[in-house]
Every structure is written in structure tokens, then in C-alpha cells.
Design goal:
By secondary structure, the chain is an alpha/beta fold. It has two domains: about 15-220, 3-Layer(aba) Sandwich (Rossmann fold); about 245-370, no CATH class. It has eleven helices and 15 strands. The protein has helices at about 25-35, 50-65, 65-75, 110-125, 140-155, 215-220, 230-240, 270-280, 290-305, 320-340, 345-350; strands spanning about 15-20, 45-50, 90-95, 130-135, 160-165, 185-190, 195, 205, 250, 255-260, 260-265, 290, 350-355, 355-360, 365-370. A six-stranded mixed β-sheet has the order 3-2-1-4-5-8, with helices on both faces. The longest helix has 18 residues, at about 320-340.
Length: about 375
Amino acid sequence: MNGKTKPERNNIMRHVFIGICWNKPAVITESLYQLHHDPNEIPDEVIVITTAEGETHIREELFETGRWHQFKDDLNIAADKLQFGVSDKYIRLLPDRQGGDSTDALNNIDWGKTADYILNVLRQFTEDSDNRITFSITDGHEIISATCALCMSLLGRRQDVLCHRLVNSPFNKSGIEPPFYYPDSRNYYLPDGTTVNGNDAVINLCEIPFARCRYLFNDRLNQLPGSFLDSIDQINGKIAENLDAPELFMKPETVQCFIGDIEIKFNAAEFTLYWLLVLRCKNSCPPLYGQEQLDSEFYAFVDTINSMVMPGIIHHDFPINSDDIHQLIAVIVVRIKEAVAIEQGRNLCLPIRDRGVYGLLLPPDNIICPRNY
């Protein structure tokens, strides 16, 4: 494998090859051919991320023809290596916009769902410290290849490798007959009548350096990445912490909340829950951990509110159970995200820091609130 990076690798680890493939299963055999030159690099298992159309190409070109078994025989691969087959264990189908299996690589893919799906496939293998991954992003449309690389940056570890397969011309051209899948001694015929020998093919599996952000999450955020968009949001939020924090103003008599010059539209229940967390932040109280603690503090806080301070409390029905309060938190997050940009300090004002951890990150001096508990 060519490249400048030298990740930490333990040859005792189970080696998992993950690749993306739309309509060229040859990228799988070509990449694995290059890895087989080093016995320690032969993967134990092959996972392919594709669409329903890609699965058809894999089944027809590699398995119904017997080409996959011939490939393993030609390379003298042991039976317990390169475990692969036409099943959902090995072939992972991207979801479409409706949540079904995608049949089209561009027109019917929801980018957010696609990113989360790829991230979850990676998570399955990166959570096991006995695994190491080689992730090839060769046969994918640009946006999918880029998404795979970004997902690898979120979850990849020191022992994992991101790579791209390159094959010399004319073996990378369409129209070559028979179709080229890996170097061998056969003759291949080009559309112009030229003959080339398979032994002249040169395959490079180029390693791509990438930032391993999972260690940032571990060391700075005390967690691993969650969904793709939320993880990116958190990283951008850490950057935003270095910006000027906004001023937050709460006005309970009119149920108004301002972050900087931006008014956040809350109803009475949303305002009250956010008001509780804002006051705790203003008074440098620790965050609330878990739904039970949040529920208890919220109900106690509601009981202290005087209708003279907040007239809107009289005519509003407040949450009656944990699910209602959990939903309120979600609504507050949406309202703030819709109104305030990251560069305006949005993430410092969100009511939740991590799953089950409730509290703002604003400096107390930036909060203006009429009541002090």
C-alpha cells in the first residue's frame, strides 16, 4: 500500500476491509489484490456499502460467474480469509429518502440518512478494539466518497486506514474485453483492436491521511460521535466557544427571550423550562444529569413562579410527564438552532450539552434575568 501515513497496526487484530461500490465490483477485487501481497494485510472480512443496483452488479459479476471463488483460488487465499457473500452481513444497502434500500446513487439518497448509515456501519467495527479497518472510497460518486472520508475522520482510530485505488491505463477504461478485475496472465482486447496482457496492470492502493477526531471527542467532549450532523455541530460548537459569547436576556412577564438581538419565540412551557436552565447557568449551578433530575427541578421551579412575575403561567397547561418535558427540550433546541447561527454562539445557549446532560455553557455574566434563585 502506497502512502506517507504509518498507522499503528497490530497484525493479530481482525482486519476488516470496507469498500463502497456502485456498478464496478472490480474495485473490490483490485483493492484486495493489492492487499494480498503482504500476508499480514489480507483482510479477514469484506464489507461493501452500496445500493440495490450495486448489489445486483456484485451478485451477477462476482458470484453468479464464480469469479469471486476463482479470485481467491488464483491468489491462494485461505478459506478463513476474505469472508464475503451476497447477504446483509457483508453487503450494506444505503437507505433512500423513504427509508428503503436505495436504488439510485444520487437522485434518491437523503444525504443526512446516508451519512448516519455510513457512520453506523463504521461504528459497528470501530467499537471493537480487536478490529482494524481498511476503508476504500474508490467507486463512489464524489459526494458519497467525501461523506465516507468525513465519517472515517469522526470514528477512525490509529490502526485504521483510509485509501483510494488507482489502476493504470488501459485497465481502468471501459470497453476492455473481457472485463478486467485483477492482474492475471490473460490477454485483454481494447475497442481499437489493441491487445494487452493482464500482467501489465499496475494497481496502487493509496493511503489518504485523515484527522482522527474520535480522540478529540474522547478527550474534549468525553463522548464518542453520535449522529453525523450532530457531531459536526458539536465540533463547530467547540470552535464557536472561542468566539464572543452572546448576551442572553429573559423577560418572563412577556415570555420573551433574546439571544443577542435575536428573539426566540417560546410558549409559556418552553420558556419556563429554558428559564430554569438559564438561571442555573447564571448562578453557576452544575448541569442536571438525567431525565429524572430534570423533571424534579422543573416541577419544583414551576411551583415557585408567581403569576405577577409571569402572567402567562395562569392560562397554560404544563407538561405532566417525562416524555412531555423531553419533547420540550427538543423543541427548545430546534427553535434556537433555527434562529441563531453557530458563529453567533448558538451552541453556548443550547439547553443540552450531551445526551442526558442539561445546562447552558454561557458565561454567567452574559445572562440578564430578573429573578435570582
